[in-house]
Design brief:
globular; 8-stranded antiparallel β-sheet; binds 2-acetamido-2-deoxy-beta-D-glucopyranose; 9-stranded antiparallel β-sheet; mainly beta
Length: 296
């Protein structure tokens, strides 16, 4: 397709990236320790840090779920966490693992794992909020049983793109479409959050299957959190110092190479359950602007 504004746009993106790189460098790579990196925020004892801080478990029963949040706020980062989801009959439960800023115009990058009856597949529900507005859901099945072992779920968030990964395989890309008038998360620092909560009004088969509380408590486990990220502290990013090392910072301008794009296509062709970008019934006025070409 002919696109006369594209060369200009590419130059602008490259210039912005260069400026950002020059001002950017000291990246915080933190090793995994839940005592050091996270606070348990709710659940009255249902969230537990175990094995000297290596493992964190969240539980839910009829009275309450539970959750935790990172001590640090980040403005851009590559965030990895390993999760082992609620086994057996997990219908109605949602394990959420997401990045979010504060306030009514917040930005948010979500992974939510919708439980199911024993033997029926989980759905990985993803969403991106910018300036308080979401409604950008994409859902996927997984190509393995996420309750049998730990798997790595990652978010790459840099000025150009947000990429969701499962075990290093990209499942979703949300590109910076500011040139199409779509706000992009780039000014509000975010924390990492996780929670286990009940949503049996919608989560499993659209709410038809309810939680079986006789099987409670339900438990999900987290380990090996890794943040290769710019830490935000006292109004400043750890990436604004001038101590540069380009190899370490490569995640800041990373995009999908052609091999990763092929894997993304494989996931989208074989495991995608729902894509807001193709839901013309939901958007009779026209699909959201970011859905044209680049994110669909
Ligand atoms: C649960 O299993 C049913 C039947 O296989 C499937 O239609 C549904 O997408 C699965 N996941 C959820 C979260 O409902
Ligand atoms: C922990 O996470 C890092 C970064 O994702 C990964 O390289 C490493 O293999 C993980 N360790 C284990 C034990 O899985
Ligand atoms: C930059 O980072 C890489 C990988 O972390 C390391 O091997 C290299 O020695 C570093 N170079 C400088 C100049 O610090």
């Amino acid at each position: 397709m002919a696109c006369f504004s594209c060369p200009t746009r590419t130059v602008v993106v490259v210039l912005i990236s260069l400026l950002f790189m020059i001002s950017t460098s000291l990246i915080d790579v933190s090793a995994s320790n839940f005592y050091q990196d996270f606070d348990i925020t709710w659940g009255d004892g249902r969230a537990k840090v175990l094995n000297d801080g290596e493992l964190l478990t969240l539980s839910i029963d009829k009275a309450s779920g539970s959750g935790f949040q990172s001590k640090n706020e980040y403005l851009f980062g590559k965030i990895d966490m390993q999760l082992k989801l609620v086994p057996g009959n997990s219908a109605g439960t949602v394990t959420a693992y997401y990045l979010s800023s504060q306030g009514s115009t917040h930005d948010e990058i979500d992974f939510e794992f919708l439980g199911n009856l024993s033997g029926d597949p989980y759905i990985v529900h993803t969403n991106v909020f910018t300036q308080g507005k979401g409604s950008r859901e994409q859902q996927f099945y997984l190509w393995f049983d996420p309750t049998a072992d730990f798997h790595t779920y990652s978010v790459l968030w840099n000025p150009q793109t947000i990429i969701f990964y499962v075990d290093g395989t990209p499942i979703r890309v949300f590109k910076n479409s500011e040139s199409q008038g779509v706000p992009y998360p780039k000014n509000q620092p975010m924390r990492v959050y996780a929670s286990l909560w009940n949503a049996d009004d919608w989560a499993t088969r659209g709410g038809l299957v309810k939680t079986d509380w006789t099987k409670a408590p339900f438990t999900a486990a987290f380990r090996n959190f890794t943040a290769t990220a710019c830490v935000w502290s006292a109004g400043k990013s750890s990436c604004s110092s001038t101590n540069s090392n380009s190899t370490k910072n490569s995640w800041l301008w990373q995009e999908l190479d052609s091999a990763s794009q092929a894997r993304l296509k494989w996931v989208q062709n074989n495991y995608m359950v729902y894509n807001y970008c193709t839901d013309t019934k939901r958007f009779p006025q026209g699909l959201p602007p970011e859905c044209t070409l680049i994110n669909s």
